[in-house]
Amino acid sequence: MLLAMEPAEPAGRRERMRALRSVVDMTPAPSSHSVPKPPRSRARSVAGAPRIRSPRPLRLAVVGGLALVVGLGATGCSVVDEVLHGERAGSYDDAAALAEQRYIAWIPSDASAIDLLESSRADDTATVLLDSDEPLPADCVVVPRRSGPTMTMTTERELPETYKTDEVSLCGDWAVLPTGSGWYGWTPVTEKASDAEAPAP
Questions:
Q1: Are 102 and 132 in contact (CB under 8 A)?
Q2: Per-residue b/e over 41-72, b at no fewer than 16 CB within 10 Å?
Q3: How far apart are CA 132 and CA 112, in angstroms?
């Protein structure tokens, strides 16, 4: 019985196949590290475009401003007057309480409901209003009025019409006028004790 024989492969073909296999075996497998990754996209600011700022500083500024307003409201307008206008106002029950802040020699001992408006700067400018039943000290002299209050007191209490008055009592460095319930005085003044009329012989 004859067996079918496969035709022999030509020698040249076998050599080419071996060479091809050797090339395939020598080719390295692709590595994930060797594959270049696409560059990440980064947001870049466009030239000329406005930068967006965080609203936090603005919120802090608003909160700080509100705190300042609340603080001023808690202490009243006196803080604003003292800083901006150079005025400091105070109220005192009696002459002793006033003397702890400012001693004014002519203030009667029975003085009450004393309102003092004075300069917060380095000077003696002041205006005072008080209730009293006592007269002024004996060393006060009546002189022609030439000055007026440098600081105008705002109050619902009765104030004399200073510029309609011809005479004032000069008590040291203060000019004093009577009110319906006491005394109203101011300093500095331009009046002098020598302006007082000489007593009749």
A1: no
A2: eeeeeeeeeeeeeeeeeeeeeeeeeeeeeeee
A3: 7
When pLDDT is cut at 50, 70 and 90, the band that residue 122 belongs to is confident
160-189 burial, b if ≥16 CB within 10 A, otherwise e? bebeeeeebbbbebbbbbeeeebbbbbbeb
Per-residue pLDDT, 36: 57
Model pLDDT for residues 138-157, shown as the tens digit of each residue:
999 999 999 999 998 999 99
Give the integer Cα–Cα distance in Å for 150 and 56. 47
Q: Please choose, from the candidates 156, 155, 160, 153, the residue with its C-alpha nearest in 3D space to the C-alpha of residue 180.
A: 160
CA dihedral 50, 51, 55, 61 (to 10 degrees): -80
Report if pTM > 0.90: no
Number of residues that make up the chain: 201
Q: Average pLDDT in the 113-140 region?
A: 96
Alpha helices in 76-152 (DSSP H): 78-80, 95-101
pLDDT at position 81, please?
Answer: 53
